[in-house]
Design brief:
alpha+beta; four-stranded antiparallel beta sheet; 7 strands; three-stranded antiparallel beta sheet; T-cell surface glycoprotein CD3 epsilon chain; transmembrane helix
């Protein structure tokens, strides 16, 4: 048989496995007699304690090492499962949205740092003419008439 320990906030309730007779509790050397099977420790300070309950010739011993806190919230397994499931669903939803919105932009050219700005074209001044390198313009081929093409 085992003790039943319930913790709520800073209150620890211990239930003795004995069911018959007058139950005597001995928590940390202090003797307290109760006719109830339950021993309640109010404002427990999380220090380890030796607790025993006895009735007649039967005695049960327990080492209590319960960590308690004043601002703790108790969650059951269903609440924890719900929180984790909701978190995963939200995460996958965001991933799917990011995937579909980025999928449409794959075919488009993204503007990089060296590209020209879109919209109105900025007029540039004409390049400074270089007399050594003149472009061939229509009607001015006689300038280059003396040059012969090389055969490859």
């Amino acid at each position: 048989k085992e003790f039943l320990v319930e913790i709520s906030g800073t209150t620890v309730t211990i239930t003795c496995p004995l069911t018959e007779g007058s139950i005597t509790w001995k928590p940390t050397g202090v003797t307290a007699t109760n006719d109830e099977r339950k021993y309640i420790i109010e404002n427990h300070d999380s220090t380890p304690a030796n607790v025993s309950c006895s009735s007649g010739d039967k005695t049960y011993h327990m080492y209590l090492n319960a960590r308690v806190c004043t601002n703790c919230e108790e969650l059951d397994a269903l609440a924890v499962t719900g929180i984790i499931t909701a978190d995963l669903l939200i995460t996958f939803g965001v991933l799917i949205l990011v995937y579909y919105f980025s999928k449409d932009r794959k075919g488009r050219a993204s503007p990089s740092a060296g590209s020209r700005p879109r919209g109105q074209k900025v007029q540039r001044p004409p390049p400074v003419p270089n007399p050594d390198y003149e472009p061939i313009r229509k009607g001015q081929r006689e300038v280059y008439a003396g040059l012969e093409s090389r055969g490859f």
